[in-house]
Model the fold of this input.
Amino acid sequence: MPRLDAGELSKWSGGRWVGFPPSDIGGVCHDTRRLKPGQLYLALRGQHFDGHDFVSEAARCGACGAVVEESWPGLAVPEGFPLLRVQDSGAALSAMASGWLRKQSPKVIGVTGSVGKSTVKDLIYTLLKDHCRAAASRGNWNNEIGLPLSILEMEPGTETLVIELGTNHPGELAELCKLASPHWGVVTHVGPSHLEFFRSVEGVAAEKAVLLESLPLNGLAFIRADVAHADRLAKNVKCPVVRVAMAGAADYVCLSRDKSVMEVEERCSRARELIPLPVPGEHQAANLLLALAVVRRAGVGWDGIRRAIGDYSPAEMRWQKESIGAVTIVNDAYNANPLSMAAAIRTFWEMDGVSGGKWLALGDMRELGAYAKAEHEAVGKLVASLSGWSGLVAVGELAAFVAEGAVSAPGGPGCGIVIKTQDADEAADRLARLLRAGDALLIKGSRAMRMERIAAILKDKICGKAASEAN
Done:
């Protein structure tokens, strides 16, 4: 965590210190549950919360001071506790992050897309960190709060900052690009995500294209050439565009792959290289291909790539494999939209090493608006087309359409047992009675569904049962 200067923070935010400014600020934090002694507490306001209610708690937790709004009366604040008073704490956060970014002046690589943002961001960072002084935004901190907080965590001397940029409403990406001023930009994919707000996939493409359109003339844009809307993404880009493809013509092409390695051709050098695949699935190979293109243009050698790739591991709830008793759980429950759901199902279907049956626990995909019923039914039809499943457990009101789509499809009988449940707790209860030794279970759904609870409940039930039988 960098050490920040009180004078610079007040200058950048347009605020004023009340009380003696702290001499040493060990970063900025907006959540007292995560706040560390010596950090500056940021009191943000939202629709359903007001961070000013926790200023006194922040002081008790060891905060060196707090950023508060001028309109806040400052009740119950410990005497002498430093306050940086600003007009708007959210705007102050962005201004402080912008100031810190200007001071450090790293090359900024922005990553957005309907799927794979966090994975590609983490892969780029993993492959760069031994080549230069690199940093990356934390987890999926990709919005108007998470992005500036991540920037403020960047250490002095950082040469390259890799950031994830998220959006679920038109216009959000433009604001994030204004803050981060990316030099290079990556769009992973365009698909039916947040359609409740974007209205169409074309609307999604237009929003994602904003990142590439914001790049400077001497920047670089990276896209997949083999997916829909690739031409739209590149249409108004001012800088050179680097294209990758899982097949066909592009600057970087996957010539072949199996479950552990892919062969990549780099058009400019005619080099053909074998690269290990750290995570299974064609979609993950495409994510790695994008990351390879970026780091190759950044000057990382092929041998360096192969050495570094072993350091990559998926983020929490992204294809996390765990053995619970004699059952294999694949927890991919961080989030879901039609693209990521289909990719996970196909990859799970292809997964080797399962001696028993394969089960699916699929939850609602949120924010699809008028497309929700059709997109959920399409997932069900995909499941039926693959066949050989032991069972499908649909979790939630929208996921019921997944079950209906599976049963009504020509391959419906191949889905095995099909069950509709209301929530993750009910799904776990049903699965605990159905799963047998050697079985494997994929868990996936939108964040709001808290599908990871299925894994937690199954762990308690299965391990508890085993302990009881042992006694």
Q: What stands out?
A: The radius of gyration is 24 Å. The chain has three domains: 6-86, 105-311, 320-470. The chain is about 35% helix and 20% strand. The mean pLDDT is 94.
